[in-house]
Specification:
The chain contains nine helices and 13 strands. It has 286 residues and is of the alpha/beta class.
Length: 286
């Protein structure tokens, strides 16, 4: 009965909020941009930062649809989150206008690559691999680790090295993510099998809850929020996290350097005046 209730709860999460996704996908050449960019897609959220003055530049900022607590739709139907609030605070500090297009991770990346959006803020990890493929990053705005997540009743007390718990077991990951790369880096050493590569987080969590996999890998702040909000029967063990990497705002066209410069300047200012700390505390209690 408990598993049935958990399945229903996670299924609802998956239905109402399509896939979080740790943001480590590296775009490949030829990625197609989302069709019909003249108007927002049906499920896209669009928010203007300020009233547009005639002739003013309005920067188009692409985001994921749901990556709690960085971007998601709250109970009032409003698009909120750390990324949303940081973008608003930076724009106010620098005095520029912008519009958010909530497209989903893959479509958001493709939109910026194709020039249909000017910048991306969606929990994107700053990596050398991405820089080499054309991403131009801001200064980091949040340092995130990835972590292995286990069922709440998993007992690691007999293991000096917690990763030994995974030997001979199956681990679920999300395709193309930082978490997947973290798991792959440890797979041979600890002898576990990467069982499935999922497209979304709720389905990946469900795989562990149902016992199909012994663990999954997710960005730590995302997992902590998901467990809390969804009352998931999962745990984040100590000592099973990566070293971490910062999230960054990104452009993919040097012509948008002005936007990147304004983001960096605004980020520095909101960190100095305390606004940044207030935003983080609002969503993570840090």
């Amino acid at each position: 009965m408990k598993k049935l209730l958990v399945m229903s709860m996670i299924a609802c999460m998956a239905f109402s909020a399509v896939a979080c996704g740790s943001k480590e996908e590296v775009p490949t050449e030829g990625t197609e941009a989302p069709a019909e960019t003249e108007a927002p897609a049906e499920n896209a959220e669009a928010e203007a930062s300020t009233e547009e003055a005639s002739g003013d530049k309005v920067w188009i900022i692409a985001m994921d649809t749901v990556f709690r607590p960085f971007e998601f739709t709250d109970e009032k139907g409003e698009f909120v989150g750390i990324d949303v609030d940081i973008m608003k605070a930076v724009a106010e500090d620098q005095g520029f206008s912008y519009e958010i297009q909530s497209l989903g991770w893959d479509a958001a990346v493709a939109a910026v690559q194709a020039g249909q959006a000017d910048g991306l803020i969606a929990g994107a990890s700053i990596t050398d691999e991405r820089k080499e493929s054309g991403w131009i990053f801001s200064e980091g705005y949040y340092n995130a680790t990835q972590t292995f997540v286990l069922p709440e009743d998993a007992d690691l007390s007999g293991f000096e090295d917690p990763f030994e718990y995974l030997r001979g077991k199956k681990v679920a990951v999300k395709q193309g993510t930082a978490g997947a790369k973290f798991a792959e880096s440890l797979q041979e050493k600890y002898g576990f099998e990467i069982s499935s590569k999922f497209e979304d987080s709720p389905t990946m969590y469900q795989d562990v809850v149902l016992g199909n996999s012994a663990a999954c890998v997710e960005d730590t702040p995302i997992m902590a929020d998901s467990i809390k909000v969804g009352s998931l029967p999962l745990q984040i063990p100590e000592g099973m996290e990566s070293e971490g990497a910062p999230y960054g705002f990104a452009i993919m066209n040097e012509a948008n350097q002005e936007l990147l410069d304004m983001f960096n300047a605004g980020l520095a200012n909101i960190k100095e005046n305390g606004t940044y700390d207030q935003i983080i505390a609002k969503y993570l209690g840090e």
